[in-house]
Design brief:
By secondary structure, the protein is an alpha/beta fold. It has 15 helices and ten strands. The longest helix is centred in the last third of the chain and has 23 residues.
Length: 340
Amino acid sequence: MHRGNRTGLALGLVVALAVLGAAGGVTAASMDKVTLQLKWVAQAQFAGYYAAKDKGYYDAAGLDAAIKPGGPDIIPEQVVAGGGAQFGIDWLPSLLSAREQGTPLINIAQVFQYSGMREIAFKDSGIKTVSDLKGKKVAVWFGGNEFELLATLEKYHLNKDKDLTLVKQPFDMNLLLNRQVSAAAAMTYNEYHQVLEAGVKPDDLVIIDFNKEGTAMLEDGVFTTESWIADAHNKDIAARFLRASFQGWIYCRDHPSDCVDIVLKQDTTGVMTKVHQTSMMAEINKLIWGPPLPAHSIGYMDPAAFKRTAAIALEFGVIKKPASDSAYTHVIWEMTQKLK
């Protein structure tokens, strides 16, 4: 997709919002209430959704939208399945695993086109390749975040229970920085920069890139339940929600500094820094827009990428049976392209 196409989508969204405004807008009573459950706490990883709310894109789409931050004990699939939110953000392997266990969820938009997850280690630990993780303490986030690492271990014929010690990683990098583990998970847009901000130089680190290993899986997608999306009115709500969310992400692509400020307004703890959120915003934009440029406009689930993720999930034991293409739908994305 060329930049001109992306600009055309942005202009189309602006026109659509202008038409709504010219028609008199929507009243509070007619607004459809929706809730989005995030995968983690408020940060630039979710800047597009916060921008859509802050800039009024959800309002203009007739949506009274609430955004619920996540946390270490919150699993978005469970929240959405239980009716606590209409939409959730999580990684595709987690959705496939939940579906296999009987939770009828469906991906309606694939926002991140590339994997941002890495496993990192200090060079002086002796780790150069995945094979060198044997006999080491290796930290990773559980709760559905561990699948890329497990797939990589299987590829190198490392038994996760016998050949190394897996450690449940908290959502910080202290285990690695304190040398309590030999390797730890890190997202390019978050924990990797936390390590650098702690004074570690890039040249001091070894980075295991799951994209290069061929075990990367699709991350941050938007999902809902099959039963909820089966209703025609809910399909319309979902299309309006995605369209406004895409507008938010387009805004963050073109105005990253503004979106950093929008995210910082969500910080109720005072722990965020503008420097960190700025680096995160830059990395997040890469996962959505490239390089390389995705073949389709934002939110489109590339069938080949789905099949690759599903095949890796099956081969390495994330799921026990082949995943069906019914785990995702293009219907809502296609509706967003037709909204006027």
